Structures are given as structure tokens and as C-alpha cells.
Amino acid sequence: MTFRKYLVLAGVAVFAAAGDTMLSHGMKQTGNISLSHLASVIYAIRNPWVAAGILLLMAFFAAYMNALSWADLTYVLPATSLGYVLLALVARFALHEQVSPLRWLGIALISGGVGFVAGGPALTSHGHELSEIDSKSPLPAEKVSSGTPHASCPTPAAVVTREVQP
Amino acid sequence: MKELHTWGAILAVVVTSVVGDILLARAMKQVGDVHELWQRSGLWTVVGRVLGNPNFFLGVSAMAVAFFSLLFALSWGDVSLVAPAAASLTFIGNAFAAKVFLHERVDRRRWIAAALVAGGVALLAG
After folding, report:
1. What is the Cα A24 distance to its own chain's centre?
2. What is the pTM for the complete model shown?
3. Burial of residue A66, with CB atoms counted within 10 A of its CB: 0-12 exposed, 13-18 middle, 19 or more buried
4. Which residues of A touch B105 (CB under 8 A)?
5. Which of A61, A88, A116, B104 has CB atoms 3.0–4.6 Å from B113's, for a disulfide?
């Protein structure tokens, strides 16, 4: 794991939490949206909080896709849940809201879960194939093709950048 | 009857989000490390390759269905039930699906993590 990759994972957590918060704040200002009044959706988007929330969620999606390009789904998902922890901490220490003991327990569980995953390797799918290619050549081979026939076959680029932690 | 509707909608949210996550993860593995690709061939190659990937489109579609299922679930049930139930069940479902469909090595460490995070999310989202 490089610093850049940790930064991407942090982005996943922060953008999701901040985007959700802004969106919900904005939606409470604009009021209910019903299927019969689709024009109210347009009205909602003109709210600056909603617009900012949507932009942040787009940033979240970009960071999430970036992370999934070099890490397992089961590695990235716990990182997304760190956003919940972040929200609770912001509520407690920035907004001085009360955080119930059950929520602190939730924070502890998520943090523990993330710690468990973070201690392991980021990419495990096709570990056997990867180690074979790794031992053959440290240089990036020519890219197979964008339309790899085997859906789950990793590209050489992904192979070479894989880093296994102890 | 109303509870049945709520749980049906929660199940729909969980299934469609898991399908979406799996498809998106597979799409991005096919694209490869985007940073490498970006440095070698530029940003537009990355964007083109992601948008041109059929799994990416299917994944985003599944996510859209999940989003609307969530809206339905929320209109039938309480937020305090729907949000944590959907979020934590999606976690567990993803761990299973990642092992079966993406062949990720979900070892004991990751199972424990999935269970802990699912429990924690259920407590926090409620």
C-alpha cells in the first residue's frame, strides 16, 4: 500500500459521509419529493446543499471505482463504513451532539473490523496466478487487451502493482 | 402485511446493491489499476475504458434499481429499521458474493471484519 492508495481510501470514506450529510441537510430544506410532482426534483437540485451533496457523491464514486481497480471489494467496503464513524465523531466533537453508548459500540465494532481487514493484503483474487506472473518478470508485460475474454482475469498492470503486506 | 412489504423491499435493496457492487468491482478489475493506466495512456483512456465496459453499465444500472428500491422501502418502513438492516445485510451479502463470484480470498480475518462492520453499521445507521 502506498500513500496514494491510503489517500484514495480516505477519499472514499470522507466523500461518502460528507455527501450524504449535505444531501440530507438540503432535502430537509426542500421538503418531500413525490412521484406525482417530478418537477420538485428540479427544485431540489437547485438547493446549494443538494447540489454540493451530489457533487461530493460523484467524487465518492470516482474514488470508489479507483480503489476497486487495485483492491478487493471485501477490502474497500470496510473503508466505506469508516464514513459512519467519521459522521458520529463530527456529530460529537464539532456539533457537540450526544452520541449514545450503543453508537460508541457501533464505532468500536466498525473500527475493529477495518483494522482486521487493513492488516491483510489488499488484493487476493487469483492469488495463485498473480504469484506465478510475479515470479516471472518484475516488469509490466504488454497489456492483454481491454476486452479480456476472461472476465475475472487481472491485467498485468494490476498484477505488478499488487503489494502484499505481512 | 406492511412488514412483509418492508422486508421485501429491504431484500430487493440488498440483492440489487450486492449485484451492483460485484459488477462494478469486476468492471474495475478488467480495466486495471487506473493510476497506472492514467500515467501510461492519459485520463481519457481511463474514462473511455471504464465507460466502455459493459459490466460497469450493468453495475450502475443495478445501483440505480437499488436506490429506487431503498426509496420504496423507506416509504413503507421506518428509517431506523430500513437503513441499518439494508446496510448491514448488504455487507454480509457482499462478502459471500465476492468469494463466490470474484474469487476473493475471504479468509477468517475478512469474515470477522465483515461481521464486525455489519454489526457496527447496524448500530450506527439506526
Report:
1. 19
2. 0.77
3. buried
4. 124-125, 127
5. A116
